[in-house]
Amino acid sequence: SPVWHVNAAWQYRTGWPYTRLVLRQGVTEEGVAFYYTQGGAPHGARYPAFHRLDVRVSRLLRTRHGQFSVFAEVVNLYDHGNVRTYSHEWVPTPAPGWRLVQQPEYWFRLLPSLGASWSWEQ
Asked: Does residue 53 or residue 93 have the better pLDDT?
């Protein structure tokens, strides 16, 4: 209608490539074991697929001096956890040693917002 607007946008893409971190073990000349991280195959892994639905409802109010608009919006309406990156933690193993644990970090989840704007005509 001339005063009510409903908009929706859906995004989908396959996961971006990234370089996985790998835990390696080395030995010094004295025979002491040590651990370090190293990049795996460049862009050899992919994040999970990214998808979200954004919805906005807005109302336009016209006045003698311009127009006033209010809106309500929800980004990522169905609250999907889209992986942004991975954090890594070294965890000791039962035998002397370590393993690298990868934990996902997400883009914002469900994000509601309200807003208003006013524009005037000369």
From this structure: 53
